[in-house]
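Model: Ready when you are.
Researcher: Fold this.
Model:
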Amino acid sequence: SYNRSNGICQPGLSMERPLLEQYRAPVLEAFKNIAQRLPNVSVWDPFAVLCPAGQERCDTLAEGRPLFFDADHLSNYGNAYLLPSFVQAMTKTQQRSQGR
């Protein structure tokens, strides 16, 4: 399969949490700046679902199924896995915009 032959995947099926947090920090800062400037923009961050708090390493599998199909693209399963969190975030955003 692609993942087995892809050099980026050779280190294994998990990554250290601090490394991932370091990679994502500039993106989160940029999103925060955008959201501060545009009142109707909200940011949904799926990291807590993909790498739950307390884990020192973040896995590429959940329930034995792949969350990613290469180094950083969500698989179909990964998208489905994140869907409840996304729906919850969008529902809260919609309720806030409607003053509930």
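Researcher: Now this one.
Model:
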Amino acid sequence: MGMNELDKQLLEDKIKKFTYYIRLASRITKTPMPEVRFWDNYCPDRQVDEIAHIHLDIPGGRICVSKYMLRAMDYDDVEDTALHEFSHLFVEDHGVYFQNVLSDLKK
């Protein structure tokens, strides 16, 4: 079943919000903005049930986001996911340094 016009508009708004938070994080950290790619379903390199992930092997990084998962998210989740993935530009794991980077972006 296809999406109705309201669902399409909400998805487009979430895509814009996700991109906005990546752009904002880039300005805050004075880091070039990574590429952001929105997949209709999932990036072929994804892990099971992940909303988004980052490709650090691509110069400048690429953040891949599932439109399918994005549709189910609220706006707080959109912000959290965008900043979470952006934080991986600085540290791959989810340890203390990662949490500090993420916390600094949310201020």
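Researcher: Key takeaway?
Model: The two ends are 40 Å apart (CA to CA).
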